[in-house]
Amino acid sequence: MSAAPQFRLDGRRALVTGSSRGIGLALATALAASGAHVVLNARDADRLEFAASGLHAVGHPVATAAFDVTNESAVAAGFASIESAHGPIDILVNNTGIHRRAPLADMSLADWNAVLETNLTSAFLAGRAAARGMIARRSGKIINICSLMSDLARPTTGNYAAAKGGLRMLTRAMCAEWAQHHVQVNGLAPGYILTDLTASLAADPKFDGWVKARTPAARWGTPADLAGACVFLASPASDFVNGQILVVDGGLGAVV
Ligand code: NAP
Ligand code: GCO
Fold it and tell me: Is 18 in the pocket of ligand 1 (CB under 6 A)?
């Protein structure tokens, strides 16, 4: 049974940053399955092509664009190359993110900067590049991948929480400036999701037990759990949704 028209993305072009694996690949897959022409992005070109081949094998002819989203000139060149080859980007998912966990009192400036640049500044760089064309065309969707740590922190994640908290407010700032141009900017905030980013945590029986006890759904999420929310925020169904953070966390942020 096909989705209702307001949830279809046929004829739309989507760029998902950080989509060679994990959440980004799952979101790219969902957008492609909903009809979008998707461009995958990451730094490692080999892993990017491997991910693309997997989607080709199931009938999704995705494209790839390998560039570092923290590099201003690389972002500009990447967007120019994508739009020259494929046409304007209608949907941007700012997904790229990393962790460099450490107690703040011991955290290096390098680890602070790496997380802020990758998790926050990259969304500004890519959002700015995408918005210029979206504003001119008076149409576009930007989805910033936030986190339950846009609101909550735990020890050793100070750089990450600061970045994701900033991404909540960047989402609202983009809404404040771009909603009038029919560009909808919203956030998607996952809870604990099983990916490479959290593999070391899930492998720790104590942490694994804590996540399952702290999450009302009593389980870790999977990247596929985020697909429907992403398609909603990328589709005409959300044309009057602006500046919101859609939380997909199994209820973790709703309870003490
Ligand atoms: P992941 O499995 O580690 O994947 C990260 C992706 O980002 C990879 O494709 C990686 O490929 C790419 N990447 C990293 N640095 C990059 C850069 N500078 N430029 C371009 N691409 C880059 O992470 P994930 O768990 O899927 O997380 C994806 C997003 O969800 C992040 O924003 C994360 O903060 C957020 N999130 C995750 C969870 C969770 O529990 N997993 C929960 C809430 C939010 P390359 O290394 O080849 O570049
Ligand atoms: C951690 C985890 C979290 C998750 C995610 C939760 O160290 O507690 O890595 O930061 O990655 O952001 O939403």
Answer: yes
